[in-house]
Amino acid sequence: MSLFLSNIPIKDIKIGMKATYSQTITDTDVKAFAGISGDRNPVHLDEIYAQNSRYKKRIAHGLISVSYFSALFGTRLPGEGCVYASQTLNFKRPIYVGDTVTAQIEVINIYIDKKKILFRTTCTVKNRIVIDGEAEIFIP
After folding, report:
1. What DSSP line would sit under 67-97, residue for residue?
2. Going by C-beta distance under 8 Å and a sequence separation of 6 or more, which residues neighbour residue 45?
3. Residue-range domains of the chain with CATH
4. What's an example Gene Ontology biological process for this entry (predicted)?
5. pTM confidence score
6. What is the H or E stretch that residue 125 is in?
7. How far are the Cα atoms of 8, 31, 61, 67, 107 from residue 53, in angstroms, in the given order?
8. 87: which strand partners?
9. pLDDT tens digits for 104-133?
């Protein structure tokens, strides 16, 4: 199965289907996200501050990685036109500037009559789960 899925009709979606996306989080990403979100917490932006934190170095905003789920839903599975209905999140480990995050979505339930799909969502760094949860997506 291709990782670049798009516009899959709900009748063709099956439990267990997956899609993934990986990206390395850069200093530029963190600074841009701080500007967009308004979250200028020094644990994200100030190396000296972060060295004295529990993390010992700067961490990326968790929501940067979470946004990769949206990219997957809108461009790969199910594709264009779908809309987020809900998302639960568990932040399990920090994500550091320079980490490569792999986001994965997996179909765990399909509600054809409601045109809704339930996904397991996970982000990993070096094969360790850093974020997990579930998302509901409406299909057009």
Report:
1. HHHHHHHHHTSS-TT-EEEEE--EE-S--BT
2. 30, 31, 34, 58
3. 16-138 (3.10.129.10)
4. fatty acid biosynthetic process
5. 0.91
6. strand 116-125
7. 45, 19, 15, 25, 37
8. 135
9. 999 999 999 999 999 999 999 999 999 999
